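1st attempt posting a full record on here, be nice pls
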Amino acid sequence: MTHVVAIDQGTTSSRCFVFDDRGGIVASDQREHRQIFPRPGWVEHDPYEIWQSVQGVVEGALGRTGVGDIAAVGITNQRETTMIWDAETGEPIGNAIVWQDTRTASMLADFGEIDAFRDRTGLPLATYFSAPKLRWLLDRHPGREVRMGTMDSWLIYKLTGRHATDVTNASRTMLMNLSTLDWDDSLTEAFGIPRSVLPEIVPSIGEIGVVSGGPLGGVPLAGVLGDQQAALVGQACFEPGEAKCTYGTGAFVLLNTGERPIASAKGLVTTVGYQIKGKPAVYALEGSVAVAGALVQWLRDNLGIIRTAPEVNDLAATVEDNGGCVIVPAFSGLFAPYWRPDARGVICGLTGFVTKAHLARAALEATAWQVGDVMAAMVEEAGVPIDALNVDGGMTASELLLQLQSDFLDVPVVRPTVTETTVLGAAYAAGLATGVWSGFPELREHWKADRRFTPAMSEQDRSAAAAQWAKAVQRTLDWS
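the predicted structure (as tokens):
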């Protein structure tokens, strides 16, 4: 039996999965890495630690299988997190700046209005994306010959020696032109970034290089996708109008729009969904929620309300509603569809009646409402109704969350049997490029639904709860 390896370098951990040629999980390994907070609003990762964690999980996963017939390896990664390394030695220069980081907020005014680059990049001007982070790093290391990368570039470099990135990750830098799929001179000039520091842009699905050493030595690296685009592929959303939401540290909704990018005027992001080598790119509309699972971690680590993340579901289920309490977790501002870096988190409606169970339920509702805001903008923007939302990620273990999501959206929410769709998408990309799978029809046959959640909330109750949520969102603004 042929196998494919997928590496997932995520925001809080690195993982490695081994899949068989039916798309089944054979083995996996995971290692967390540190979240470094030097100042309020700053979030960093140590590139050395990340590389060590990737090496560790690859060895761990392969060590559990004993398989030798590995056809290909794929990478999926946290996207906008940005780092630089020395062009000669290959050594990282300082820490990587994580996508959640807001240190560049004061810099953005120098580049114009929020939509200054949207016509070329599909992106609003925001701290979320890579270009301001890269400019910040270059300003602090003048005169050095460096190379820039997001986490996929760092891993490609360490595995194969090639300085490259795929179109999905490049589309998140605010430096790539969506039409040409190449670095845009007007954008690199605006940010003062030399093209020499930027990686080569390659298709998502196609051989990039051969792994030069370690347990994967000699195996072709044949697929690279940003994590949310990988989930789109893993959820088999290959047709325009098909959508998925991944619930992880944040929550990310992507809607396949086909070979035509749709410009957004509703606070969404136009991005590349994936590209097969030799074929046109497939585009997507995306709405990004900064804090989803991170709110559950905050309840656990900062407030001590729960001991483990899964306990939030059981605790929240002990009450019938939120007790009048609404949480808006704008820890690092609000992302789509608001794009307000000045927002900060609030807990509204506190009374003596509210218990930790109500807070737990309000936390789950906060994720569902944020996704609801994104979906409402997406349906209006794309001009097509979404018949169902495919969901994945760690938080989908909470059936209460998924029922709330269906209730708030008033559409079915479908959880697949394999919820590890991010790594599955990376495996699919690598396997498609190397002939393990024949094409999208075969991959669609692998997708199976585990459970379907249908709306059970009255329109009156939904409207009242939506109004309460909107009121709470307004309380977060103009704080920072």
